[in-house]
């Protein structure tokens, strides 16, 4: 196991140009919700999980997006229920949440 078992990277990028961005989908608040939930579960720590904030991951049209490593599983989410499902199924049980999963293949390979 690495220093963290899972790292969750949340794009919270805000575009003022009007182009679609993850901030439009409440990404910051939902990242905060995820972080607080992981803390309440006692697993936001070394040896377990870490939430990370990042800028554009170049999947703006799918956003808001997050990617979980080490597997490199991509998710989109809209609600706290989506975050709950990702934490309860993926983080706690190691099961991919199929209804929220995005392709991990680059464009043109789907
Ligand atoms: S703004 Fe989030 S992926 Fe581009």
| Alpha carbon gap, first and last residue | 31 Å
**Unreliable spans:** none
Number of domains: 1
CATH class assignment:
Alpha Beta
Strand tally is: 5
Spatial ordering of strands, largest sheet: 2-1-3-4-5
Provide structural commentary.
This protein has helices spanning 27-40, 80-93, and strands spanning 6-11, 49-54, 65-69, 73-76, 101-102. The radius of gyration is 13 Å and the shape is globular. It has one domain: Glutaredoxin. It is α+β, with helices and mostly antiparallel strands. The protein contains two helices and five strands. Helix 1 links the parallel strand 1 and strand 2. FE2/S2 (inorganic) cluster is lined by residues 11, 13, 21-22, 56-60, 63, 65.
Salient structural properties:
110 residues, Glutaredoxin, 21% strand, binds FE2/S2 (inorganic) cluster
In short:
It contains 2 helices and 5 strands; from the N terminus they run E-H-E-E-E-H-E. It is of the alpha+beta class and 110 residues long. It has one domain: 3-Layer(aba) Sandwich (Glutaredoxin).
Topology:
Blueprint: E1 6-11, H1 27-40, E2 49-54, E3 65-69, E4 73-76, H2 80-93, E5 101-102
Parallel strand pairs: 1-2
Antiparallel strand pairs: 1-3, 3-4, 4-5
Helix pairs in contact: 1-2
This protein binds FE2/S2 (inorganic) cluster (FES).
FE2/S2 (inorganic) cluster (FES) binds next to loops.
